[in-house]
Write a structure and sequence with these properties.
- With about 900 residues, this protein is of the alpha/beta class.
- It folds into five domains: about 1-140, no CATH class; about 145-300, 3-Layer(aba) Sandwich (Rossmann fold), CATH 3.40.50; about 370-510 and about 520-630, Type I PLP-dependent aspartate aminotransferase-like (Major domain) (Aspartate Aminotransferase, domain 2, 3-Layer(aba) Sandwich); about 640-805, Aspartate Aminotransferase, domain 1 (Alpha-Beta Complex), CATH 3.90.1150.10; about 820-920, Ornithine Decarboxylase, Chain A, domain 4 (Alpha-Beta Complex), CATH 3.90.100.
- The protein has 37 helices and 24 strands.
- The strands form seven sheets. An eight-stranded mixed beta sheet has the order 6-15-14-13-11-7-8-20, with helices on both faces. The protein has a five-stranded parallel beta sheet with strand order 2-1-3-4-5, sandwiched between helices. A three-stranded antiparallel beta sheet has the order 16-18-19.
- The protein binds pyridoxal-5'-phosphate.
- The site of pyridoxal-5'-phosphate (PLP) has 11 residues, from helix 19.
Length: about 900
Amino acid sequence: MQESHTETPYTALGFYHKISQLRADTWNALKRDLGQLVRQEAGCPRARTLVKAVDVKLTRLEIIEDYHAFPSKEDFRHLWSLFDREEYALLEKVVKRLVRALISESYRRRHVDLSETDADAEDMETLDALNQLRRGHPASNSSAQPYFELLIVDNLSPQEEEVVREAFHNLRRPEDRFVYDVVTVRSFEDALIAVLVNPNIQACLIRYEFPYKSKYNLSALRNYLEGLSEQELENQSEADRSILLSSMIHELRPEIDQFLVTSGDVEATASRDIRHFNRIFYRETDYIEQHHTILRAIDNRYRTPFFDALREYSKKPTGVFHAMPISRGKSVTRSHWAGHMIDFYGINIFLAETSATSGGLDSLLQPFGPIKKAQEYAARAFGARQSFFVTNGTSTANKIVVQALVKPRDIVLIDRDCHKSHHYGMVLAGAHVSYLDSYPLNDYSMYGAVPLHEIKKTLLAYKRAGELDKVKMLLLTNCTFDGVVYNVRRVMEECLAIKPDLVFLWDEAWFAFASFNPTYRPRTAMHAARTLRDRYRSEAYREEYAAWKAEFDALDPDDDATWLERRLLPDPDAVRIRAYATHSTHKTLTSLRQGSMIHVYDQDFRQRVEAPFHEAYMTHTSTSPNYQILASLDVGRMQAEMEGFELVHAQVEAALSLREQLYTNPLLQKYFRVLKNSDMVPETYRESKVDSFYDPVTGWNQMEEAWARDEFVVDPTRVTIAIGATGVDGDAFKNEYLMNKYGIQINKTSRNTVLFMTNIGTSRGAIAYLLDVLIKLAKEFETRWEESSRPERKIIEHRVHSLTQELPPLPDFSRFHGAFRQCADTPQGDIRCAYFLAYDEENTEYLRFDNGALQAEMRQGRDVVSASFVIPYPPGFPVLVPGQVVSEEILAFLQALDVKEIHGYRPELGLLVFTEAALVDPAAG
Ligand SMILES: Cc1ncc(COP(=O)(O)O)c(C=O)c1O
């Protein structure tokens, strides 16, 4: 009977991106259907329809649950047997218990036996109901044994499966640090699906012979399985297939601990590329050994060395004869006035406040103990070779990296709309700056990112001018504030073909979470660096390069098209992979504010960078780093390694539901237009031709293709909404409507857009609330229009027109003035020289452009040169930097801006510019 139920034409797993919502929703819908069914007269048409609906839902759920430990296959057999026997009342009861156990997650704490109907089970159910109510409350964070699932890949019969599961169950001891249950799958494909759909899986035991094909048709895997032929796989040896499977599991979820159980030629297996296996077990290895090895592996990730050390330290009685009266709460516990600080924060934070670097603690500036370990674990989690904690935000992390790598007069290619910390970093390092322009999105007053063509063109200009050896670094923002994501691998590969030792600094302030999702991860700096290094070391690449080189050498090297119109490949004998990434961990993962990390994948780090890096780190790091920030970074790393996959998946799910509603609700569409991939990435950069990741019929199936191929993609978790049709500008919408009326906080706006960012803390409830608010606002705008008089309508129409049609084009970087340039053929400028030249008052003057004074100077042929950074908010990047020539376009943009905040510009005085005399010999100034 059961068999017939599993034959669905196209499985629900095609909607992998929304799998956990689909799972929860289907269970709830099933419960609802059964609730109705039991109230119907048997056999009536409504009952027949409901029976069919229950059948469909059970079928769908059985597929999903096949990859989860709870409910077990045994539980499902029980459900089907109740269904087949038409015992709908009992089925409803069991499903209710099951849903409750899933929501309250009681299955993580105890065995839930669905066949029980006795009084104990009722008690447990009441307990579950209470737990369900408590979930999400801070006080409910239990310190009980964490739970995970062990995936076993083996072609077992149902009976054998039960035996294995029970064998592992029987090993559980109350003193174990973790508790786990077992999920078994029987094929290669099913193993991959399981790790994709079941975030509870933390360890995987690959055993014996298993076939390739799943019994389901699963489009979710399309991209991962490309190029694998079933035939070839079936012909591979057991060991080869296991090794391939392990490397694919590693690609999807690198954190999973994998173990191989082999029966065959053990020595031969051990000599293969088995780097993704923690350990190989021989067939005879007993369960006890496996059990302990698995628990130890999980513990290795779960450990938080610095957080643990700090907690231990806080328990020790210590006499403080040093700084920090607040340490151990001393200055506040006896205070007559400041005691409420303890009431608010609790005592632990004060017990953990210390300046000690010994006694179990460590020194951030010269780590040797738990901080060192915590940083090593961070490197493992983010796929770096080295990681460093930073307690003053990515603003500081960026400056450290630049100072460590860039000497005065080294040339740095950098996106001009990068974060301001980079511009200041350039000043501090004395870099000669070559600004790169991002493609503009004039309709939304925002920038995209820098096209590869532009980067290659600039590098080529340096090559032709004989200046390439001075180019040290390419610095780009990935992803941008608005969510435009580079094809990091492609950018690095092609740039390395022109300059094989180029250093890359990827500002991933907004992208730390990306390391924990298989679609996002390939577009991170660390992943790209590692995979490129592996690629260039392979024989296959040497062959590819030789063939490419033969073709390339036949072309005319003086023709720009030779370099710009074709894909370039670097010389494997010359190339060095030198990549750095900076993360505002606090922006997208668990960390206290300012908690950030620098991740390094630099083949030359040890020989060439370690010492200057250390000095740069010392330059910018406080000698009193905040221990709570460091501890939170340690915990944030652990959480990401244990459940980052699940949390990021849920974040993506939440954002996709928000987008779906905005794409499809007619009232919302009228006022709030959510920007699609194609709105933010012009067609030339979309090789896949995917306009939108979402299609009303196929769902979110197109996302992977775009992410795998295109030059740029939009991160769907950052939802930019064009609000021009409301007649309200971005800033007013943010403050007057969202914050003041509904307490919704957003940060980024442009003239006619607002950005809603989801993160790993965004719940389905929060999305529902936001949608509710947007619907209320849309109704408000609707009423405003309906009830407005003719003159009022004119005003609204005028505003809408201004916000949607009258958008000042965004200006490109003009150029550095000749006084700050070193070479006529290349664009770099000495920003530091210009910056400090402005320190002497006599070198500068103010010129107003609102009264035409500045324009008059320009008309007379004067190069008017900015003496400061001028940064309007929004968009929040400098339209002028020190040493830059003011252009007509920049003036037009500044005049058209209707923002209140422009840093570096005082309307009553005008722009600060250099006097003509100061520009004659700035170096002397
Ligand atoms: C791209 C980018 N880089 C760096 C930073 C600075 O990060 P932090 O706030 O951690 O100093 C920001 C802040 O918004 C940013 O947007």
